């Protein structure tokens, strides 16, 4: 069958230069509904036959045919109401004129899972057969109207070789199984909940199960299973605990109970994204399930907890209430990310979680919102929906929900979500439906707030403060502006909830905290009873996802970094202090280090702060973040300034670092919060010792590497060594490889650490690693661990005078595109940032994008990203 991501033009048979654009405003309700579907799989990696019986019903009064989507399907047979029909797919789709109101349409197709390198539809991964259908993968399994507003009840029968595939799983509840002769067996699964086809899933393989159970709030017993290779069973314990905690949390916080008798999770090695919330059968990238102290860092443990929760929470926010069309993706993703963020905050440290989430937003979403791929949380159009699983839809979408929760308050927000779930259970709905439920449940008017869904770009807030000693009054004037983004100019002022407080400089006391609602282009707020000019603490807790320009001296920022009682604001003051020193250092060539060193000393010696927070507070902002604050990014200048700052901090406070390095050592591993915090701080401290230039630094790092009883400290030390040029660097990398090369997830870390290194030869090292016998284009984790990390390494990626880094990435994109277009497309945005760099670098980046779009058989995925990046 034709390859639908390069769909030939129906008239000419040529590949269109740019793929067609799908628009939100063109949404039409489906012509035909499919309330029931029966699927029968004869599974085989080389050739699987799929028989689908669709019970279709005409939707409304019309005479349009039934149109079934299909992609790379070999049609073997079709019938309508039992009568065979002669029909050939047109542009991949099957078009069937039907007379009556209800019909039974049956098709049989053949597909080839073993040759499915896109990892969409039914594919083979490490001896397993598994599926990925979101967003439009179901059409690669069978002919079906592949859109999320068609909800069907699924009955699934699978038959497969009993030795190769002893375990057969699908959505819903298992109802029967048996022998099929000739060494084959079968299983039947029925899912009583109508669902869109993107939530369909099937897994067949030789899997072992970590089995547990959970009693729901109404007393129902749910069987839980995490299915992995036998040898990986011990590494599923943390995921199981996270699942049980998520189930209890969703009952307690949102009143949401699980609804089936079984809940299964399967871990697979080859997966395009993180995980997938298929009804009752979540499928995970194994990196978000398998953790043990020897192979996983604390960040990995936290990611497992967060992603398990995320997928579980989708059972309500996504599955029971789903999306009408893909423009509404943030309806389920923004809400579910917000839910998983709150869950993780409850399981660990709320301030540290908030800092991590904001760092992620600033690293991934702010640049997206400021570049050629900027789009609203609810996009208006797309060429390939896979390209819209973005930081904007997910993370900015979560910030939008967080702001609503803040405006409504906890009770109002809960009333809003209760109303949303009750009103729309079993429906496919829109972001607008969600906002309306919030308005009604919370009793607020969100008319202007809706702009958060439609206007792209990160709002900027400028603050000025005037103190009038005579009237003991402070006037805070705030103005907002929203930058133009592709296709959007002259934007309207938005609703910006800004938690703000004023601090008395003398006493160190907080005078007042208010939630200021900035809704106009400019507004003034007054604070009475202020005898002296206070220090402004604004956007506390990062209450709005905006950039604030508030003129505060380094001295005031140092004051806030030591005295603000909002932990996020305290962290933020420190970051701003560091950013100011670094950007001024880049501009003037003279780095002022004193204020930063003193502020770091204050935080690092403050006994009231926990280690995890201190680790966040004292870390320098990344090179990329510093670049984001500049008009034109100067990768070399930033690198030099940051290294010099790191060195100055390392040297000035060396005794403190050595003391902390010892104090944070632990005799044994535990996941207890204090121990996790100690490990986090220990790694930051080690990097300062290394930066100090101390002679024994490499030896100390190697000792940490070699003696570590956990991966957090081992990888932390490896990262520190990888940045340098010591003999220990090579020894550690070789030892790490020898010890872990049999474990794919840890080997990813070996690739990633080298690609992230601040080392003058990183481009060459990455090029060589791309040819390493353990490197493969067919595994997305491996590709991301090498090239994704490299493109995020600002200094290395932009260093080569002739644009070597850009060429390396573009070569990768072109080589990967025919194998896995989704993963290839996700590598394009770093090149699309060309406007942020000097003319020479920008020109070279553009040239690579032009080389990409000139490629004759480009996928729709890469074509969209590369052509938009050039515009
Ligand atoms: N809905 C999933 C993300 C996801 C989307 C597409 C995929 O296809 C390759 C896979 C996963 C989530 O939010 O977790
Ligand atoms: Zn999700």
From TrEMBL:
GO terms for molecular function: alanyl aminopeptidase activity; metallopeptidase activity; zinc ion binding. It comes from the Bacteria. The keyword Translocase does not apply. InterPro entries: Aminopeptidase_N-like_N, Aminopeptidase_N-like_N_sf, PepN_Ig-like_sf, Peptidase_M1, Peptidase_M1_dom, Peptidase_M1_pepN, Peptidase_M1_pepN_C, Peptidase_M1_pepN_C_sf. Keywords: Aminopeptidase, Hydrolase, Metal-binding, Metalloprotease, Protease, Zinc. It catalyses: Release of an N-terminal amino acid, Xaa-|-Yaa- from a peptide, amide or arylamide. Xaa is preferably Ala, but may be most amino acids including Pro (slow action). When a terminal hydrophobic residue is followed by a prolyl residue, the two may be released as an intact Xaa-Pro dipeptide. Residues 240-449 form the Peptidase M1 membrane alanine aminopeptidase domain. The keyword Hydrolase applies. Its EC number is 3.4.11.2. GO terms for biological process: proteolysis. Its cofactor is Zn(2+). Residues 555-871 form the Peptidase M1 alanyl aminopeptidase C-terminal domain. Residues 113-199 form the Aminopeptidase N-like N-terminal domain. Residues 457-549 form the Peptidase M1 alanyl aminopeptidase Ig-like fold domain. Pfam families: DUF3458 (PF11940), DUF3458_C (PF17432), Peptidase_M1 (PF01433), Peptidase_M1_N (PF17900). NCBIfam families: pepN_proteo. Belongs to the peptidase M1 family. This is Aminopeptidase N. It comes from Sphingobium jiangsuense.
């Amino acid at each position: 069958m034709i390859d639908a991501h390069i769909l030939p033009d129906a008239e000419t048979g040529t590949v269109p230069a740019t793929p067609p654009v799908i628009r939100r405003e063109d949404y039409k309700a489906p012509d035909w509904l499919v309330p029931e579907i029966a699927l029968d799989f004869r599974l085989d990696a080389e050739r699987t036959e799929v028989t689908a019986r669709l019970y279709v019903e005409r939707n409304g009064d019309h005479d349009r045919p039934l149109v079934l989507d299909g992609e790379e399907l070999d049609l073997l047979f079709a019938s309508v109401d039992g009568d065979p029909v002669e029909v050939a797919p047109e542009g991949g789709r099957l078009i069937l004129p039907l007379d009556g109101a209800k019909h039974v349409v049956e098709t049989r197709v053949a597909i080839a899972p073993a040759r499915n390198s896109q990892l969409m539809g039914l594919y083979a991964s490490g001896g397993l057969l598994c599926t990925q259908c979101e967003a439009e993968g179901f059409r690669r399994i069978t002919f079906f109207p592949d859109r999320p507003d068609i909800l069907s009840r699924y009955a699934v029968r699978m038959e497969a070789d009993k030795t190769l595939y002893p375990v057969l799983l699908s959505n819903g509840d298992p109802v029967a199984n048996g022998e099929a002769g000739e060494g084959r067996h079968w299983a039947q699964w029925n899912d009583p909940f109508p669902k869109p086809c993107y939530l369909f899933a099937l897994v067949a393989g030789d899997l072992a199960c970590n089995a547990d159970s959970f009693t729901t709030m109404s007393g129902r017993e749910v069987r839980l299973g995490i299915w992995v290779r036998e040898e990986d069973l011990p590494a599923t314990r943390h995921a199981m605990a996270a699942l049980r905690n998520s189930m209890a949390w969703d009952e307690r916080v949102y009143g949401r109970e699980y609804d089936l008798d079984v809940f299964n999770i399967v871990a697979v090695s080859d997966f395009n994204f993180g995980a997938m919330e298929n009804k009752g059968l979540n499928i995970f990238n194994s990196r978000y399930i398998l953790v043990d102290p020897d192979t996983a860092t604390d960040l990995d443990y936290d990611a497992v907890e967060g992603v398990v929760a995320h997928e579980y929470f989708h059972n309500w926010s996504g599955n029971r209430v789903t999306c009408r069309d893909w423009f509404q993706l943030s309806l389920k993703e923004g809400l579910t990310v917000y839910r998983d963020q709150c869950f993780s905050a409850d399981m660990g440290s709320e301030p540290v979680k908030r800092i991590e989430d904001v760092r992620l937003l600033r690293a991934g979403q702010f640049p997206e919102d400021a570049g050629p791929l900027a789009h609203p949380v609810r996009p208006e159009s797309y060429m390939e929906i896979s390209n819209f699983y973005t930081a904007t839809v997910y993370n900015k979408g979560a910030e939008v929900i967080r702001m609503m929760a803040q405006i409504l308050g906890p009770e109002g927000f809960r009333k809003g979500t209760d109303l949303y779930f009750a009103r729309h259970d079993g429906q496919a709905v829109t972001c607008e439906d969600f906002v309306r439920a919030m308005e009604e449940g919370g009793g607020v008017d969100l008319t202007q707030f809706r702009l958060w869904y439609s206007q792209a770009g990160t709002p900027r807030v400028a603050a000025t403060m005037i103190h009038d000693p005579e009237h003991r009054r402070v006037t805070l004037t705030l103005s907002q502006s929203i930058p133009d983004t592709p296709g959007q100019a002259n934007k309207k002022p938005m609703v910006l909830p800004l938690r703000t407080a004023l601090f008395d400089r003398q006493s160190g006391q907080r005078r007042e905290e208010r939630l200021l609602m900035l809704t106009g282009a400019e507004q003034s707020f007054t604070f009475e009873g202020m005898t002296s000019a206070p220090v402004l603490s604004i956007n506390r807790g990062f209450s709005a996802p905006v950039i604030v320009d508030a003129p505060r001296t380094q001295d005031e920022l140092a004051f806030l970094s030591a005295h603000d009682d909002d932990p996020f604001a305290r962290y933020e003051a420190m970051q701003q202090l560091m950013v100011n020193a670094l950007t001024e250092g880049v501009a003037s060539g003279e780095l002022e280090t004193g204020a930063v060193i003193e502020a770091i000393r204050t935080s690092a010696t403050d006994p009231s702060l926990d280690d995890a927070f201190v680790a966040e507070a004292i870390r320098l902002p990344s090179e990329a973040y510093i670049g984001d604050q500049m008009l034109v990014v100067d990768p070399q200048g930033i690198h030099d300034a940051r290294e010099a700052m790191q060195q100055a901090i390392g040297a000035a406070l060396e005794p403190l670092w050595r003391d902390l390095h010892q104090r944070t050592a632990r005799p044994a591993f535990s996941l207890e919060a204090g121990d996790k915090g100690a490990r986090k701080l220990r790694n930051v401290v080690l990097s300062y010792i290394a930066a100090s230039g101390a002679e024994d630094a490499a030896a100390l790092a190697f000792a940490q590497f070699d003696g570590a009883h956990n991966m957090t400290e081992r990888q932390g030390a490896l990262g520190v060594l990888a940045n340098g040029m010591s003999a220990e660097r090579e020894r550690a990398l070789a030892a790490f490889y020898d010890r872990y090369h049999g474990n794919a997830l840890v080997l990813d870390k070996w690739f990633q650490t080298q690609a992230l290194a601040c080392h003058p030869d990183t481009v060459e090292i990455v090029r060589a690693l791309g040819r390493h016998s353990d490197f493969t284009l067919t595994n997305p984790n491996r590709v991301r661990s090498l090239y994704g990390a490299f493109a995020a390494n600002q200094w290395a990626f932009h260093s080569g005078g002739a644009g070597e880094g850009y060429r390396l990435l573009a070569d990768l994109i072109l080589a990967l595109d025919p194998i896995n277009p989704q993963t290839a497309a996700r590598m394009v945005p770093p090149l699309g940032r060309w406007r942020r760099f000097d003319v020479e670098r920008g020109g070279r980046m553009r040239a690579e994008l032009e080389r990409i779009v000139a490629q004759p058989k480009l996928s729709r995925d890469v074509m969209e990203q590369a052509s938009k990046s050039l515009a």
